[in-house]
Write a structure and sequence with these properties.
By secondary structure, this protein is of the alpha+beta class. It has five helices and 13 strands. This is PEGA domain-containing protein.
């Protein structure tokens, strides 16, 4: 084999690998991700809104929504999940994207293009948690040395807890 051809092939292969790795997060992450939504009790309806208050998803627990990881250039996405039962809001939870570990690959490999252009523009530099779990929150809570007292909606009690209730 011709040594010149081997050197040319090696150089071309090295350049190709460097270009592919220059935006690591874009290679390994997606700009939208599925997020599983669960609640206790299940069967709650949920609505997902973005920072501007635009509804970007809804459903019933357990369910799933696809959400964007970024809201703008170098801006992670943030969402508010509002949970309801019989039309009454029972709680909400915030979900915010965080910087992906794959984004650091740009620093290690020296991909300036991926670091400041490709990954931030596509939103692939961010990742969302895989799921949102909403557990009914107490409406009020009081703690004293001898114990604690919590006020909750009757909708948050299971059958066994409801059976132990006493009418006052």
């Amino acid at each position: 084999m011709n040594p010149f051809r081997i050197r040319s092939f090696t150089t071309a292969a090295s350049v190709g690998v460097a270009l592919l790795c220059s935006n690591c997060a874009t290679v390994f992450n997606r700009t939208t991700q599925p997020v599983r939504v669960a609640s206790n009790p299940s069967g709650l309806t949920f609505k997902v809104t973005d920072k501007e208050g635009v509804v970007v998803g809804n459903g019933t627990t357990p369910g799933e929504v696809r959400l964007k990881t970024s809201s703008n250039y170098f801006v992670p996405a943030a969402y508010i999940f509002t949970f309801s039962k019989n039309g009454k809001v029972v709680g909400s939870q915030v979900l915010t994207a965080r910087v992906s570990g794959w984004y650091a690959g740009n620093i290690l490999i020296g991909g300036l293009i991926g670091l400041v252009i490709v990954d931030p523009l596509t939103g692939a530099m961010y990742t969302l948690p895989d799921d949102v779990n909403f557990g009914g929150q107490p409406m009020a809570s009081v703690t004293h040395d001898s114990g604690s007292l919590q006020f909750v909606s009757i909708d948050q009690l299971d059958g066994e807890q409801r059976a132990r209730l006493a009418r006052l």
